[in-house]
Design a protein that fits this description.
Layout: E1 34-41, E2 46-52, E3 64-79, E4 89-99, E5 102-110, E6 113-129, H1 143-149, E7 157-166
Antiparallel strand pairs: 1-2, 1-4, 2-3, 3-6, 4-5, 5-6, 6-7
């Protein structure tokens, strides 16, 4: 299945994540993941964050992750300063909290950025995408080398486990 297919509807048949390794309930587990892309599907009121997990701490399964926010109320991307041409946006902190309009997600990124969103439902999927074992060097590799060694929305992936938070559940 393609990663972009996770945006269309929840994947119910994927096994649940154990409580000790759930990044929605323990967001510090996302530490050192890299944000590869953010996609907004306005027709479905859905936003998703594509994560590179090979650089993350060893608590997460799979080489790729995706956070899907359904029933979005807001999505915000802020950068302090000027980003480089290609930037590895590493997660340095994350929070997930129940708020008045649903769940509020905030992801602090290095260097100097923040991604935040509010949604009725949040899902996380760990998966193995059809990519290699080595993370590319963004300063040395060509664009085609980078795109062939990190997941994209069009990458084939096998889901490993999932987690979800729905309004009134947290």
């Amino acid at each position: 299945m393609l990663i972009q297919e996770f945006l269309s509807e929840p994947m119910e048949g994927v096994p649940a994540i154990g409580p000790d390794s759930d990044p929605l309930r323990s967001p510090w587990l996302l530490q050192e993941c890299q944000v590869l892309d953010v996609r907004i599907d306005a027709l479905r009121s859905t936003a998703a964050v594509l994560l590179e997990q090979r650089a993350a701490f060893d608590y997460l399964r799979g080489n790729t992750g995706i956070i899907v926010m359904r029933g979005i109320r807001s999505v915000d991307w802020k950068i302090a300063g000027s980003p480089g041409a290609l930037t590895a946006w590493a997660v340095v902190g994350a929070t997930v909290a129940a708020g008045s309009e649903g769940f509020e997600v905030s992801i602090g990124l290095s260097p100097n950025a923040r991604l935040a969103g509010t949604a009725e439902t949040i899902e996380y999927y760990a998966m193995d995408a059809n990519i290699g074992l080595i993370i590319p060097d963004y300063l040395e590799a060509s664009n085609s080398e980078i795109r062939s060694t990190v997941a994209t929305w069009e990458s084939a992936a096998v889901p490993i486990e999932r987690s979800s938070l729905r309004s009134g559940q947290y």
